[in-house]
Backbone:
């Protein structure tokens, strides 16, 4: 059944999601006043949030934190591979601060607590000061207290509020009066009230809309993505160097969060997994071959396959990440099979009475076909994982690239190195026996 032209045309002009992200980012760069972030939703949640880079700066002062974070963001723009950088702490929210003249307030007999409560009731309001019972509807309602918009919508209106003196008791909800209502009060009531603008000074300043904390310290984070062809670990090291160049005081510290921290923790655990896998493989092979030398000959193929695996990642424009590390772990499990077939057959031929040189040549000749068959079967079995598409295809492709490239490229080298090492170690063991 031949595919029609319409079916073939459906694949023309297709491009990956990475190409879409790069095209969108390129178009949005024309808007210099905007800070954009184009992210690819991960197919697998490995922790650390939705940001590739989450670099935090901790310290006591908000203004200094915001300044250091902004300097680091500008430095990050000059680092290749870091894209869509932005900071979490921005001092861009206008706020009003009330500065109390404490000496004058004390002279007039007004307590700081009364001033604070007057502002809270008049501007912020009190959600429940009493309850109102509506007998006609058989319902209870909360009575809320707050000044109308005209008396709290500006600095002048707020500064004209009245606050009660301390000799008349603490400020009550009935003491929060704007100028228009205080003018209608009697002489006795007006003598017990003091205008707010004679006690305080209202200043305008910029503040943060939100303040994040980490380990009980204020924190400002630089969040960014990693561009194509760049590795997360290298970008984090570059950011550490850029943060060191800021020469922050000792009270300020940096910390890697998000996926970067998960990456460091995961690779630390992978090192333990690699070490334990080699130890367990050596123990099992030593028990099967009843020798401490032959397992070393077999496991020598493992370090030989790592450079070829890394070369495969570089040649296919992939990076060393969690998935490629999984691929290296899988590669360790399959690459040693060639050496096992060679060493096992060489030992059997020598046990049958054949000389070592002849046994090595005969064993490699006999085992060449099964080695090629198993290698090709593994490679072709991984091809669908390499060429597959759909959600999570880029992550799965890294595993296939490592296994296919590492196994294929190390095939010829292991076929040559294993017999040579087998012969050299056998010579060493014979020389040791002669000296004994």
Residues:
């Amino acid at each position: 059944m031949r595919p029609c032209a319409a079916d073939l045309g459906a694949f023309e002009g297709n491009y990956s999601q990475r190409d879409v992200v790069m095209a969108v980012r390129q178009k949005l760069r024309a808007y210099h006043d905007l800070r954009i972030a184009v992210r690819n939703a991960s197919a697998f949640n490995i922790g650390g949030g939705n940001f590739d880079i989450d670099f935090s700066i901790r310290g006591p002062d908000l203004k200094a934190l915001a300044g250091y974070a902004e300097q680091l963001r500008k430095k990050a723009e000059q680092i290749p591979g870091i894209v869509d950088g932005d900071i979490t702490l921005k001092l861009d929210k206008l706020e009003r601060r009330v500065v109390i003249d404490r000496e004058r307030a004390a002279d007039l007999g007004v307590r700081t607590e009364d001033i604070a409560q007057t502002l809270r009731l008049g501007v912020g309001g009190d959600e429940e000061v009493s309850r109102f019972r509506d007998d006609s509807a058989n319902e209870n309602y909360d009575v809320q207290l707050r000044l109308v918009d005209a008396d709290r919508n500006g600095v002048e209106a707020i500064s004209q509020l009245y606050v009660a003196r301390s000799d008349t008791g603490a400020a009550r909800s009935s003491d929060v009066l704007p100028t228009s209502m205080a003018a209608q009060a009697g002489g006795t009531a007006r003598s017990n009230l003091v205008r707010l603008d004679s006690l305080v000074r209202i200043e305008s300043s910029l503040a943060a809309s939100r303040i994040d904390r980490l380990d009980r310290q204020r924190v400002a984070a630089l969040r960014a993505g990693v561009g194509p062809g760049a590795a997360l670990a290298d970008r984090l090291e570059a950011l550490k160097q850029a943060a060191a160049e800021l020469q922050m005081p000792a009270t300020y510290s940096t910390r890697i969060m998000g996926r970067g921290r998960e990456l460091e923790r995961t690779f630390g655990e992978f090192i333990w997994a690699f070490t334990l896998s080699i130890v367990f493989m050596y123990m099992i092979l030593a028990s099967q071959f009843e020798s401490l030398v032959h397992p070393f000959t077999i496991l020598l193929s493992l370090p030989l396959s790592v450079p070829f695996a890394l070369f495969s990642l570089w040649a296919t424009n992939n990076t060393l990440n969690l998935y490629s590390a999984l691929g290296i772990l899988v590669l360790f499990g399959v690459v040693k099979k060639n050496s096992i077939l060679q060493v096992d057959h060489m030992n059997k031929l020598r046990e049958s009475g054949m000389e070592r040189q002849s046994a090595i040549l005969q064993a490699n000749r006999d085992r060449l076909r099964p080695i090629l068959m198993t290698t090709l079967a593994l490679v072709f079995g991984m091809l669908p994982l390499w060429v597959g598409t759909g959600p999570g295809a880029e992550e799965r492709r890294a595993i296939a690239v490592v296994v296919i490239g590492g196994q294929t490229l190390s095939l010829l080298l292991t076929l040559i190195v294993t017999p040579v090492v087998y012969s050299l170690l056998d010579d060493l063991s014979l020389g040791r026996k002669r000296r004994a």
